[in-house]
Amino acid sequence: MNSRFNVIFRLTIRFALLTTSLGLALSLPRQTEAKLFLVATSTDIASIARFVGGDKVDVESIIQGYQNPHYVDVKPSYMVKLHKADMFVKIGLDLELWAPILAEGARNSKILYGAPGFVDASVGAEILEIPQIRVTRELGDIHLYGNPHYWLDPDNGKVIAHNILEGLRRIDPENSAYYEENEAKFDKKVDALLPQLEAKMKPYAGTKVITYHNTWPNFLNRFGLVAAGYVEPKPGVPPSPAHVTSLIEKMMMEKVKIIIQEPFYETKISQFVANKTGAKLVILSPSVLGAEGVTDYFSLFDYLIDNIIRAFQEMGIKPQT
Ligand SMILES: [Zn+2]
Questions:
Q1: In the prediction, which pLDDT does 32 show?
Q2: Which residues have CB under 8 Å from 320's CB, separation 6+?
Q3: CATH superfamily entry for domain 34-196
Q4: How many CA atoms lie within 13 A of 11 on its CB side?
Q5: What separation in Å is there between the alpha carbon of 232 and the centre of ligand 1?
Q6: 63 CA distance to ligand 1 centroid (A)?
Q7: Ligand 1: distance of its center to the CA of 236 in Å?
Q8: Contacts from 246-250 at CB under 8 Å and sequence distance 24+?
């Protein structure tokens, strides 16, 4: 009995070893061909990651283009996604307050802060409105480390691309040259497109606009427009009646004709302000896939510039020649 048991035991072991090595043999070629899996928090960062990673990566974003990046309900499916990730790219500056919980829940040491697969896209970017005094979240302000909507300047897009390149070099050094080439192509595309966009907006230089949330300083600066005020008194703080009254007065005084609002906020108050001042409320998505036809980082800027100019024209704001 004993020897029979031994034989069966040995056969079972051999069979197990055989199937394991068979499994390895079958899976090895697939593993070498497998693409890296990059997870970005936002669609904008994901779009840039696709340019840099090319056909060696699969990229997904956590949030969708129509969502407010500041406020996201963490879902288990996001953790599952991150569990499988080779790289995690964040906008940074505490924009994604929800991200640390997600990263911890994902149980993936490759993408934790400081690991090779962790990328903070903001490193080296031009960050505006860095507070000179300590700002606390208790006062409601959610832009504690400067304005985190910095991707809205294509020059910062190049910095984001570079940070992603650095991450790819760390986790996939064999393909560094390929990623470097892609990053160079991306930079070249920005350099070709940006002067065209600037030229389109140049006749409207100095035009004042109101924005709902303080999403746009990098964009406005880049394209020569001016924020005369915000519907939110502070980023993340809903407007009070007193603030609305003073905003209306300011808009009347300074003849501001455009209110830009992100699609994920309630329009009631902005529409009220627009009605009182004769201004136009323009809903504009600051993100890739947040509006029809905005399929990548480059079409985002075409969409923004074209829609703003159209609104200017509708409001009789004349280009200066
Ligand atoms: Zn914000």
A1: 57
A2: 203, 204, 205
A3: Nitrogenase molybdenum iron protein domain (3.40.50.1980)
A4: 6
A5: 11
A6: 15
A7: 7
A8: 247/210, 247/273, 248/273, 248/276, 248/277
- Give tens-digit pLDDT for 174-193: 999 999 999 999 999 999 99
d(CA 47, CA 51): 7
Half-sphere exposure (CA, 13 Å, Cβ side) for 18? Answer: 6
**Ligand 1: distance of its center to the CA of 214 in Å?**
6
Compute, in angstroms, the gap from residue 264 CA to the centroid of ligand 1.
12
Angle at 109 between CA 43 and CA 99, to 5 degrees: 35
Cα 215 to averaged position of ligand 1 atoms, centre (Å): 5
Q: What is the pLDDT of residue 20?
A: 45
- pLDDT tens by residue, 13-56: 444 444 344 344 444 444 556 899 999 999 999 999 999 999 99
Token readout for 283 is 């809903």
Domain extent listing, the chain: 1-33, 34-196, 198-314
Locate the DSSP E strands across 146-261.
208-211, 226-230, 258-261
How close is the Cα of 148 to the center of ligand 1, in Å?
6
Q: Is it the case that residue 278 has pLDDT exceeding 90?
A: yes
What is the token pair recorded at 29? Answer: 């070629």
Task: Residues 198-314: name the CATH superfamily.
Answer: Nitrogenase molybdenum iron protein domain (3.40.50.1980)
**Ligand 1 centroid to residue 17 C-alpha, Å:** 55
Q: How far is the CA of 30 from the centre of ligand 1 (A)?
A: 42
Q: If residue 3 lies in a helix (H) or strand (E), which one and from where to where? A: helix 2-33
CB neighbour list of residue 177: distance below 8 Å, 6 or more residues apart: none
